[in-house]
């Protein structure tokens, strides 16, 4: 049994992770400032004696009696992380610094959820961990991309300089139930638009690609990584199945039986053209690969959003 801190535990991936860790008999403290996370996501955990929620930000230092830290705290959806970019940089950098200090003080193992955004607009495809990326340091995505990059730097410096036991994972696009319907991500937008009969908004011509990993698979990888001694990463976590945004729109329309039409909007600047993880390292070191096919994951996600709409939430 571990005493585990999950920062960003009220967020999309975080709440699934908290639940999984509790199921395995751990004690879990969730630290979240509720900027994009929501207490709704944790409603069923409120009465669990092994679960504690603290409303607070990783931008401040914390001292908690824990032996594992999963650092997930950071808005991840472009409209959210761009709405207060200075806060995003602070969350990434100061959040990493404060959590690493906590890990150092308590001798805890600490896992950083980095991102495929460290590769920026990739010129190598698919992206292996050895690729150093092509990131604009001044564009509108930079607050997130560079924030996450410097957080990786800090993790490796704490490891080399102070011997902190670190894990770094680079998470590619993840989707599934409990992603906020207003999150602004492509999967949540398309499904909500399809279910409400609204126009489906493709940014650009829809030829850009992404790979979508179901949240249960992502959480499995996080837990495996945390519990793999001596493997710092960085390691890519994502689903190697690549599809265009246009194909995703078609699938969602077809699976929801929606009468929505597709409309085209301007492509935001610095929006990566192609993205696909090389997951050889995760396969080899974690014995992990995604299990949930896109069709099945989308079905479960559509059912979740249908439920929200039916309950008027
Ligand atoms: N996208 C889109 N319509 C939307 C939301 C997003 O076409 O309503 C596009 C977006 O421009 C990007 C891709 O879908 O090319 C994935 O966007 P998302 O925000 O989900 O994630 P990220 O860009 O961070 O991978």
Topology of this protein?
Elements: E1 3-7, H1 12-23, E2 27-32, E3 51-55, E4 68-71, H2 78-81, H3 85-106, E5 109-115, H4 142-162, E6 166-171, E7 174-175, H5 186-196, E8 200-203, E9 209-211, E10 213-214, H6 215-226, E11 235-237, E12 242-244, H7 245-256, E13 262-265, H8 280-286, H9 294-310
Parallel strand pairs: 1-2, 1-4, 2-3, 4-5, 5-6, 6-11, 7-10, 8-13
Antiparallel strand pairs: 9-12
The protein binds uridine-5'-diphosphate (UDP).
Structural summary, described in words:
It is a single chain. With 313 residues, the chain is of the alpha/beta class. Helix 1 crosses helix 6 (215-226), helix 3 runs parallel beside helix 4 and helix 5 (186-196) packs across helix 9. The protein is 38% helix and 17% strand. The protein has a single domain (3-310), classed as 3-Layer(aba) Sandwich (Rossmann fold), CATH 3.40.50.720. It is globular and about 55 Å long. It is built from nine helices and 13 strands. It binds uridine-5'-diphosphate. Residues 77-78, 173, 185-186, 189, 201-203, 208, 210, 245, 267-268, 271 line the site of uridine-5'-diphosphate.
Shape-level CATH architecture = 3-Layer(aba) Sandwich
Mean pLDDT: 97
Helix content: 25-40%
Whole-Å distance between the termini? Answer: 36 Å
Percentage of β-strand residues: 15-25%
Number of strands: 13
- Under CATH, the homologous superfamily reads NAD(P)-binding Rossmann-like Domain
Uncertain stretches of 5 or more adjacent residues: none
What is the helix tally? 9
Radius of gyration: 19 Å
* CATH level 1 class label: Alpha Beta
* Small-molecule binders: uridine-5'-diphosphate
Taken from the alpha-carbon principal axes, the silhouette is globular
State the domain count: 1
Strand order of the largest sheet: 3-2-1-4-5-6-11
Largest sheet: 7 strands, parallel
CATH topology: Rossmann fold
What is the succession of H and E elements?
EHEEEHHEHEEHEEEHEEHEHH
